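User: Run a structure prediction on this.
Assistant: Running it now.
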Amino acid sequence: MQPENLKKNESGTVGLPIRIVVLSIVGFIGFYAILSALSAAPAPAEPMYATANTSTFSLSSGGEESNFSLQISVLDRENRGVGEANVIVWSPDRKKAYSGVTSPDGNVIIMILNPQLPAGKSEGYVAVKVMRTGYRDFSEEYFVKVTRS
C-alpha cells in the first residue's frame, strides 16, 4: 500500500512519456552511429607466406664463388599465388640484399651472388621479407639454411 501523499503527487510522471521517447531516439541514433562506423572500417589485411625451392644450400669450402638462385613462391591463405609482391632476401651475413617482384602466379627467382657466412660461423640463414598492399608483411629470419661444406 502506498502512502496517501504519494497517491496524490503526480509531479514525477508529468512529461515522462515524452522523455522516454526522446531518450529512445537519442539511443537509437547513437547505436546507428556505432554500427555505421563498424561497417565502414577497412577490412583487415590478409595473411600471406613464402616458400622456397630448397631448404638448405652448401657453399664450397675452397674459396670459390658460390652463386645460387632461389625460387620463392608467395601464397595467400588459400594457397593461391600473390602477384606483384615485393620480395627482399638478405645474404647470411646480412651485408647484401637482393630483391624481386613476383609474377602473377606468385613466383620470383632471386639470384644470390657469392653469399658469405657470418664471421666465425660455419652456417647461417638467408632471411626474407615479403610485402604487398592488402596483405600482412611476411618476415622469416631463418628462411634457407646455408652451410659451408
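The longest strand covers residues 138-148.
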